[in-house]
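Let's inspect a concrete specimen:
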Amino acid sequence: MVNESSVLFLCVHNAGRSQIGAGWMRHLGGETIQAYSAGSTPAEQVNPMVVKAMAEVGIDLTNQKPTKWTEDMIKEVDVVISMGCGDTCPVYPNKSYINWEIDDPSGQEIETVRTVRDQIEKLVRELLVKLLGKE
C-alpha cells in the first residue's frame, strides 16, 4: 500500500477516456493521488460529450486540455494506465502498467459516453482500493 501515489492515464487523443480517468481519480482520490492524463496524438479539445457526461456526476473538465505525453511524465509517475494507445505507450522499469480495454467515446451519443464514464469510474474505484487499501 502506498500513502501517496501518482497515476498517468494515457490514450491516443487525450480527449475522452484518459480525461475521464484522471477526472475520476482527482474526484475520488482527493489529495492522496496525483492524477495526470496525456495522449500520443492529442486532439484540439476534450470531447464535448465527455465534458457533459462528467458534469452530470459533478466533475468539471471544462478547463482540461489534451496534452502529449512525454518520457519525463511517464518516468515521474507510479502507475501508467493505458486506455487504447497500443504500441505507442513506452514501457519503463519499476512502473506499474495497467491496460484497460475501454471503448472510445469519440463520436458517440451521450448514452454511450455515460456507459464509458461509468466503466472507468468502477475501474478507478478498484485501483484506489489497491493503491490506498480502502474504498
In short: The radius of gyration is 14 Å. Residues 5-132 form a domain with the Rossmann fold fold (CATH 3.40.50.2300).
